[in-house]
Amino acid sequence: MIIHPPYLLFLGDAADELAAKTAHGIADWRPEWCVGQFRLPGCRADLHLPDLTPAEAAAKGARTMIVGVANAGGVLPEHWTREIVAAIEAGFDIASGLHTRLSSRPAIAEAAARHGRALLDIRHSTEHFSTGKGVKRPGLRLLTVGTDCSVGKKYTALTLEKAMRARGMDADFRATGQTGVFISGRGAAIDAVGADFISGAVEWIAPAAAENHWDLVEGQGSLFHPSFAGVSLGLLHGAQPDAFVVCHEPTRRTMRGVAHELPSIAEVIALTIRCGRLTNPAIRPFGIAVNTQHLGEDEARRLLETTARELELPATDPVRFGVEAIVDRLAEAFPASVGK
Amino acid sequence: MIIHPPYLLFLGDAADELAAKTAHGIADWRPEWCVGQFRLPGCRADLHLPDLTPAEAAAKGARTMIVGVANAGGVLPEHWTREIVAAIEAGFDIASGLHTRLSSRPAIAEAAARHGRALLDIRHSTEHFSTGKGVKRPGLRLLTVGTDCSVGKKYTALTLEKAMRARGMDADFRATGQTGVFISGRGAAIDAVGADFISGAVEWIAPAAAENHWDLVEGQGSLFHPSFAGVSLGLLHGAQPDAFVVCHEPTRRTMRGVAHELPSIAEVIALTIRCGRLTNPAIRPFGIAVNTQHLGEDEARRLLETTARELELPATDPVRFGVEAIVDRLAEAFPASVGK
């Protein structure tokens, strides 16, 4: 799925900032792609971007309107149809992360056909993937894994992209989730892929590349999550990572949506290596990314020091302290991937 | 997906017996459900069932016509449309394992709507699954796992069902693949389920049951298969098996469709226990099912003896020697599940 920037971010009448989480992610990570926001009366979210109508945004060069707002059940509200049709008429492709397919609304489908615009439903992959082949392909890959869902895997991969590029390394974030696809303009939401094609989809998302190029693959779920471990394992075999970083939220007691306790970071490292060796015998950990937002700064520093010492790996909070320590370790192990 | 027997098995103009593999599986395992076969001129497959037209089969009580034949690409040949429409007009539901959706052919869709008949596309699940919850549910479960794809996981589960029922045990085969769904009249083809819903689908396939009831869950793939390990892991967490049986084909050198060597049976046991403990701490192996079709009888016996001794588990070829040794072990460990 390829999405063409620049974007106009449609917020509709989002109930709060949380409902606009996807749009916030895009505006945070790709401000240069975001021409403006388009809000309806009653909208309670604000990206602090210029408020533009589709016609105004089109005049400023925007090509795709992103429906970057979530509703209960992922349903497209009826009263958004008119606005989306108007955007199509103003020349926009439409990309949506809702469950409702854009094309399931006849008015939207007809407008897109009439004006030759694309309707991109991120949750409904149209790409026909092959099954994974498990063959090592050129290029370096790093995968972010986790002790749970929603512990910062996307954020860590994006922070690494920024830091590695600043270091002169040739590094690209590779999206496997909805927000990530909007942020990178490419990728596939793994949760929209058929069970047999998880690894194959990731082989497509992070394809063969130059020998010293880094793909920073966004992980999903956890090998220890009872609902999603299969997704995480398929992703691991598709990514065939040379390096991985474990993401963790230290104050969480049970895994998201279930009653299971979180595994230890050490357990995640051990099982990731054990399984990951199947498709890349050289797999190894390069750092720990801890989300310390619920800890005071001193407490956070102490926890990171203990974690680093116990696991003999750089441990950091990417938000608070950046990821330089992890990039140092990568640069040391893969010197040829560092720009001169 | 619920399919109502009795069945009429449609073979079309199948090129050979292999193309009718699914139909053969149904006829072998559910002869009491198979009223007849319906063949077109040029058909080179034969199930040794009465040749019946849809009208004749309907008169004998058949309710569903199964399109149990594979074509290159899983495409429904144009010239079958007329026969399928005729079957609908004769009162049949139609169930198909092809990739082409039955309803994508307007003539078929219209006939089904006009006559109020069901179109069941096994490869396109219409069930809306939840994500897996990982909560232990009542009932006993056994999962067949493998060192590779296509090593006898379905066959072993079905043989166990037969042997356990003969022993007075309350046991049901639970299908996770296309042929299995036709054989049990229920289930879901896991390869048609979205990546996030593998475990949840298996929780639906093998739901809460009486305390001493056995679900014999058909496994898929292998935890060591680079293409499908994610499916196998999701299936493991959805099944939460108390018992598992490892299926193996000793003459195979590389895993199906890839260049990877097969893992050892011991490796499969170790990783199945390590991962399976997450959702059922009591998981343990109860036997090895070896497909010895490419070995002479003496050689097969020697291999099974060595395997049994080394792994301290019953080892058998279900086709050649039955599964009584495995059922003995189950009956001993779960005496309350054996009928009086």
Automatic annotation (TrEMBL), chains A, B:
Pfam families: DUF1611, DUF1611_N. InterPro entries: DgcN-like, DgcN-like_C, DgcN-like_N, P-loop_NTPase. Residues 41-124 form the D-glutamate N-acetyltransferase-like N-terminal domain. Residues 131-327 form the D-glutamate N-acetyltransferase-like C-terminal domain. SUPFAM superfamilies: P-loop containing nucleoside triphosphate hydrolases. PANTHER family: DUF1611 DOMAIN-CONTAINING PROTEIN (PTHR40690:SF1), GLL3100 PROTEIN (PTHR40690). This is DUF1611 domain-containing protein.
